[in-house]
Amino acid sequence: MHRLPTFAALLFAAMPLAAQQQQPPPTPTHDITQVEPAPLGGAIAVPLPERERKKLSKYDIPELAGTKQAVGSQRIDGRLPKPLVDYSVTTSSLYQRLSIFEGGLVVVEGRGTGGTIRKKLIIPADALDNYLHSISPKALAGVHEAQLSRPRDTRRALLRVYDGQMNFVERQFDPMSTMPKTLSDQVMPMQDLLRVIYQDRNVTNSVAGYMPKVGDQLVGDDKKIYKVTRVVNDKVVELRCLSQPTTIYVDVKDLYNYFIGTPGAASR
């Protein structure tokens, strides 16, 4: 049986060690206009328990090496990128969705009792080809619906795969049931990619590479809003909390470890 990652529980886990182990943010740098709004009650990332790390190591999947931040517009020739793969899971305690678009754009949303995570990134062309090699309309059409356990009121999973003409094949099933191998071979890469993206705090966080200016506002991982009050030598940022008398100092290159995005929905 393929078990879902316990997203709702993971959102409550502390992150200080993971924050210290992250590598410096990628270049190029950008200003506050390229930082995404933080989701209401959102979080940066979730750590994986040891048993999930071991499970992940069994599969040969593309790592986040070579990926790029998806900041700014992702239009292709002035239009929105076409969808390629859409995978979602709903249970009584969580909602997860991962969508892959042309150009390698990957968008993830997760909602649980602990909060919301929204992330996007651009995977390299070879990684995109790897996913599309194992997940295709033809392969999914080979999964007969009679082989699948029907979705339940509180549990539903959907895998939808598009072709070049925007036609699609989809299968719905109970995510806690045992899947036939033809379906498992397509669902497992999506579950593994979800885990990797949830854990990441760098390339999937638009605060990485952000160069602060006085007056900018950011939402912290503690869900409070902070205002940039001073930038010392372009290296250290002084930020004041808007909801309590607290001032903190953070190295510019470490901002992405502690902040989610701009206020937006979080200011409501």
Q: What's the short story on this structure?
A:
The protein has 268 residues and is an alpha+beta fold. It has six helices and twelve strands.
Low-pLDDT runs: 1-22, 56-62
State the strand order across the main sheet: 1-5-4-3-2-6-7
CATH topology of the largest domain: Mago nashi protein
Strand content: 25-35%
Number of strands: 12
* CATH H-level homologous superfamily name of the largest domain: Mago nashi
What's the shape? elongated
Please count the helical segments.
6
Q: Alpha-carbon distance between the termini?
A: 41 Å
Classify the helix fraction into a percent range.
10-25%
> What is the helix/strand order?
HHHEEEEEHHEEHEEEEE
Query: What is the CATH domain class of the largest domain?
Result: Alpha Beta
CATH architecture of the largest domain: 2-Layer Sandwich
Kindly name the structural category: alpha+beta
> Radius of gyration over alpha carbons?
19 Å
| Overall pLDDT metric | 82
Kindly describe this structure.
This protein is an alpha+beta fold and 268 residues long. The protein folds into 2 domains: 7-199, Mago nashi (Mago nashi protein), CATH 3.30.1560.10; 217-267. The protein has 6 helices and 12 strands. It has helices at 7-10, 16-21, 50-56, 125-134, 137-141, 181-199; strands at residues 68-69, 83-90, 94-101, 105-112, 115-122, 156-162, 168-173, 217-220, 225-232, 236-241, 247-251, 259-261. The strands form 2 sheets. Strands 1-5-4-3-2-6-7 form a 7-stranded antiparallel beta sheet. It has a 5-stranded antiparallel beta sheet with strand order 11-10-9-8-12, with no helix packed on it. β3 (94-101) and β4 form a beta hairpin. The longest helix has 19 residues, at 181-199. The protein starts with 6 loop residues before the first helix and ends in a 7-residue tail after the last strand. 34% of the residues are buried.
